[in-house]
């Protein structure tokens, strides 16, 4: 009926009939639920319990067996080379400073290296995975807490702490954490105090002067008694000569 009505409205054109379905079914309401939970039958439960697989027990209890140790993997040759280089740096450098490195442009890195190299200070970019095993087996193990982020090493065969602090003062991306100077581990404050000390030649001159002062004072104290006694004897002899002979009593002066 619907199709005939649409055909009458379209003026009897048959080509419009192909666009409408011949039969339309409309379904309303909820869907039918065909699956409900149902308890397993008792016979089936017994059958599953009887046929359950039980693995056989080992002849030797696991606690009696030796502990299984994984064989350590052989280290890469490149890793061994890097660790050997780190060991050589700590062995041949009198000053090794540990700094926290933040990202900075390449031009600033080149500038920093240039100014540090003028004072015979080299910049070493190292990985924590390489440095930490080396420090753990050496006398510098107290430096391990400093290697927790991206770090760089400032190494020098001389103690150039004053020059290093002067250069790092203008580079906020590099923060000094600590240093090892002449086999002595110092904090940042310790490095600053070390930089305020005079040079080695001046310290040696002050030490020699202080050591020479004590013997000179002791010598002067020891010579003071004899010199005073000599002066008193000379004065006594002079008075005796002025008054007369040594055996005669001094003449009385008139009023």
From TrEMBL:
<dbReference type="GO" id="GO:0005743">
    <property type="term" value="C:mitochondrial inner membrane"/>
</dbReference>
<protein>
    <recommendedName>
        <fullName>Large ribosomal subunit protein uL10m</fullName>
    </recommendedName>
</protein>
<dbReference type="GO" id="GO:0005762">
    <property type="term" value="C:mitochondrial large ribosomal subunit"/>
</dbReference>
<keyword id="KW-0687">Ribonucleoprotein</keyword>
<keyword id="KW-0496">Mitochondrion</keyword>
<keyword id="KW-0809">Transit peptide</keyword>
<comment type="similarity">
    <text>Belongs to the universal ribosomal protein uL10 family.</text>
</comment>
<dbReference type="Pfam" id="PF00466">
    <property type="entry name" value="Ribosomal_L10"/>
</dbReference>
<dbReference type="InterPro" id="IPR043141">
    <property type="entry name" value="Ribosomal_uL10-like_sf"/>
</dbReference>
<keyword id="KW-0689">Ribosomal protein</keyword>
<dbReference type="InterPro" id="IPR047865">
    <property type="entry name" value="Ribosomal_uL10_bac_type"/>
</dbReference>
<dbReference type="InterPro" id="IPR001790">
    <property type="entry name" value="Ribosomal_uL10"/>
</dbReference>
């Amino acid at each position: 009926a619907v199709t005939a009505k649409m055909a009458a409205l379209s003026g009897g054109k048959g080509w419009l009939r192909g666009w409408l379905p011949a039969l339309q079914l409309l379904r309303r309401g909820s869907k039918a639920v065909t699956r409900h939970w149902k308890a397993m039958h008792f016979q089936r439960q017994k059958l599953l319990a009887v046929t359950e697989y039980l693995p056989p027990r080992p002849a030797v209890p696991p606690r009696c067996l030796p502990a299984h140790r994984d064989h350590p993997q052989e280290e890469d040759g490149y890793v061994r080379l890097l660790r050997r280089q780190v060991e050589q740096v700590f062995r041949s450098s009198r000053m090794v400073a540990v700094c926290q490195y933040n990202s900075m442009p390449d031009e600033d890195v080149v500038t920093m290296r240039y100014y540090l190299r003028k004072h015979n200070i080299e910049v070493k970019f190292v990985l924590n995975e390489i440095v930490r095993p080396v420090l753990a087996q050496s006398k510098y193990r107290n430096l391990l807490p400093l290697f927790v982020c991206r770090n760089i090493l400032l190494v020098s065969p001389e103690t150039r702490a004053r020059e290093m602090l002067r250069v790092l003062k203008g580079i906020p991306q590099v923060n000094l954490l600590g240093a090892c100077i002449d086999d002595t581990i110092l904090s940042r404050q310790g490095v600053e105090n070390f930089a305020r000390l005079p040079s080695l030649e001046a310290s040696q001159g002050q030490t020699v002067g202080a050591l020479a002062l004590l013997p000179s004072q002791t010598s002067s104290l020891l010579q003071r008694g004899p010199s005073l006694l000599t002066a008193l004897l000379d004065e006594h002899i002079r008075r005796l000569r002025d008054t007369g002979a040594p055996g005669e009593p001094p003449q009385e002066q008139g009023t």
